[in-house]
Amino acid sequence: MLNALRADLAIIKERDPAARGTLEIVLCYPGLHALTLHRLSHSLWRLRWPLTPLLARLLSQLGRWLTGIEIHPGARIGRGVFIDR
Prior knowledge:
Layout: H1 2-15, H2 22-28, H3 30-47, H4 52-67
Helix pairs in contact: 3-4
């Protein structure tokens, strides 16, 4: 998970000329927040224990409410994705 976050930060720094630093990206980029919450909800989704799909959907909805970006917890997203919102 931490490696994915590092990779997401590197992609944003590489592709967004307006990004001035890591702290700004971590605090102010809803695309990063949405991807991070998606990776957490996707981990829950894949467990397939009795309540984990529900918890994954709830976390996904929280992410949508916070960021305005909806990503289904079952979606598989690889590295290199940058959501600029």
